[in-house]
Amino acid sequence: MSPRAAARLETLGRTDVYEYQAGKLDWMAAGLPTEGTNATRPRAGTVARTDVPTASLSERVGDVRDRVRAAGWEAAVVIDPQRVVLGFLGAKELEKDGELTVEVAMKPAPSTFRPYVPIKEVADFLVKHDFQSSPITTSDGKLVGLVLRSDAVREAEGCPDCVRSMI
Amino acid sequence: MATHIDRDRLQELVEAGAQLIEVLPAREYEEDHLPGARSIPLKSLDRNALASLDPKRPIIVYCWDIA
In the A/B pair of chains, how many CB contacts fall below 8 A? Predict the structure, then answer.
């Protein structure tokens, strides 16, 4: 639609037209703010806990376990130096042999959500698949935070009509 | 032909005064739009709509995605 809009503006005589082809989807997937009736409703990106512990592939599981538990968590997201999500360590993975590397112990390529997804959709997915949490990532795969099922369900109960009508 | 820009360039241009126009239907604009954007649905993009825009400031158009 934006290519046609740009072309139309040019036929009307404007010569200074730019086109943001990636559009609103790209903007929202990057976790950037919007305005409008949906802007203040809870979404994956606003409910996500951004203080979730992270780990790198080469760490020992035992070291990560100690660090994660000391911070009051039972999970960590495995990321690369650019914060791209590579895997996940839940309670089950953190219980593995402490001498294993994270790379061996982790659950690879976890399911993720984009920050703009309404929280009810996240809650429904986590309940349906019996997941305790889900990482939230930008369109380039970088970690925003972790949504806990308990948080998602609570927020969704307060916003039962928080669903996408346009996506 | 319009210049294609990415997210970073969009933010630079808006900061420099460009006019941001969402060309999706108004209902979609009402739900979510980029900060500071105006709604001019594609079907309404005519000479009258153009007259409402500042002739001295560049225009950035966007919709949902590349389609």
Answer: 132
For residue B23, list chain A residues with Cβ-Cβ distance below 8 A: 1-2, 5
Over the stretch A55-109, which tens digit does the pLDDT of each residue have? 999 999 999 999 999 999 999 999 999 999 999 999 999 999 999 999 999 999 9
Which of A17, A35, A116 is closest, CB to CB, to B59? A17
Cβ atoms of A85 and A79 closer than 8 Å:
yes
- A109, A87 Cβ separation under 8 angstroms: yes
The residues with which A144 forms a beta bridge, in sequence order, are: none
What is the Cα–Cα distance from B32 to A133, expressed in whole angstroms?
Answer: 26
Question: What ipTM was assigned to the predicted interfaces of this complex?
Answer: 0.96
Sequence-ordered alpha helix ranges (H) in A85-148: 91-94, 102-105, 119-128
